[in-house]
Design goal:
The chain is an alpha+beta fold. The chain has four helices and five strands, in the order H-H-H-H-E-E-E-E-E. Helix 1 runs antiparallel to helix 2. 22% of the residues are buried.
Length: 143
Amino acid sequence: MNDIDAWVWWLIGAAALGIPLVVTALPEFGMLAVGAVAAAVVSALGFGAVIQVLTFVVVSVALIAVVRPIAARHGRRGPQLATGVEALKGRQAVVLERVDASGGRIKLAGEVWSARALDTGRAYEAGQEVDVVDIEGATAIVI
């Protein structure tokens, strides 16, 4: 066992860190594995154990400090493509039957929807274009 070079042990450590990365999908294990690969390179270049460990720590911590916040920011973002009723919000519709606070009908995305006006004092006549601001159940709220 003493015949094996230190860089081989670092690569074994990197592979060992890759296993929990795949099993748990925690990216931190991948960053530690990259740190181990960097330490293997430093070891292969002939640097001592202290420099190898420092390289492992510095590279791993730097990756975690830089990549983790970026990944967290991207993870919090919702889907970029609106689907379902979310895709209908903000679209224009044509009034088919008078729409007021108590109801009416519109044609939205090729379908007939029940609708009501957001402003209770406002009414929209047949043929007018309105904007959909929200969907409540099967009713479009329009302005």
